[in-house]
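Exercise 7. Given the encoded structure of a 283-residue chain, write a plausible sequence.
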């Protein structure tokens, strides 16, 4: 018998719920929510009816339900469902819509199903950050970018890219990050520092530098971490000296950027007969 797993988490930073269903066979009768639902199918095949329209949805398909959208779904061919979604209350969506578009309104999204959408990967990344209780900066950046694309491409009010370059503000952000990378940095603080909204800050910075503010911060931290590791500083000490919340977060981020774990990188610079050596890595 298939084991069903249902995980629910509330993120106090973003003020949203994250649901994960694994091995679900349940049939959901026609119903609606008073909040937005943005979800995607990880595994499985379902018959979905929303607002009297019928869809067959599969792995990689993204679904969006507006508040009050009636919908029902059931499994197809007896297959179980693995599904992730975030639930966003209207007052929270209104705040982010104002942040992104400059308009005080509640967006209406269409269509209901985005087949094989690249945004499923973005939603999965955000969902994992929420379930793993990662720091607010990275989560909020991922959430803003996801909502911005959904509002721009699939809502009733499009959102143009910022036309101004904000060069001086971007330089201020870079200088601040490079001087305070060991500290906890948030989008809220960078927004207050420059006078830009979080959305315009994020979009303008990414367009100008080719990298998001959070990724820029992570790169600065890793560059400093490399120098400390080269000097023989233990990875656990390097993690806290470069602003990472814990050694696991540091190790994962380091390997993602460098391709080696911190210990593997440090061993390259351990001295044997006064010379550096290479590190052979078996993947």
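Solution.
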């Amino acid at each position: 018998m298939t084991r069903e797993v249902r995980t629910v988490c509330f993120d106090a930073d973003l003020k949203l719920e994250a649901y994960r269903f694994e091995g679900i066979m349940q049939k959901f009768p026609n119903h609606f929510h008073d909040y937005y639902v943005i979800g995607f199918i990880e595994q499985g095949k379902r018959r979905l009816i929303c607002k009297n329209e019928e869809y067959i949805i599969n792995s990689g398909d993204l679904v969006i339900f507006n508040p009050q959208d009636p919908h029902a779904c059931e499994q197809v061919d007896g297959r179980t469902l693995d599904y992730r979604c975030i639930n966003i209350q209207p007052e929270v969506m209104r705040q982010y819509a104002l942040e992104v578009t400059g308009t005080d309104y509640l967006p209406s999204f269409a269509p209901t199903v985005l087949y094989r959408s690249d945004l499923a990967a973005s939603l999965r990344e955000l969902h994992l950050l929420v379930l793993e209780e990662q720091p607010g900066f990275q989560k909020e950046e991922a959430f803003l970018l996801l909502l911005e694309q959904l509002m721009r491409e699939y809502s009733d009010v499009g959102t143009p890219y910022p036309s101004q370059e904000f060069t001086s503000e971007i330089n201020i952000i870079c200088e601040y990050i490079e001087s305070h990378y060991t500290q906890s940095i948030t989008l809220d603080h960078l927004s207050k520092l420059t006078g830009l909204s979080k959305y315009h800050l994020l979009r303008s910075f990414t367009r100008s530098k080719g990298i998001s503010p959070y990724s820029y911060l992570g790169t600065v931290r890793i560059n400093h971490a490399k120098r400390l590791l080269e000097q023989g500083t233990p990875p656990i000490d390097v993690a806290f000296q470069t602003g990472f919340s814990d050694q696991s977060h540091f190790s994962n981020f380091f390997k993602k950027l460098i391709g080696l774990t911190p210990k593997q990188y440090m061993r390259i610079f351990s001295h044997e007969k006064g010379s550096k050596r290479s590190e052979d890595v078996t993947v």
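Remark. The CA atoms of residues 268 and 277 lie 5 Å apart. Students should compare their own answers with the one above.
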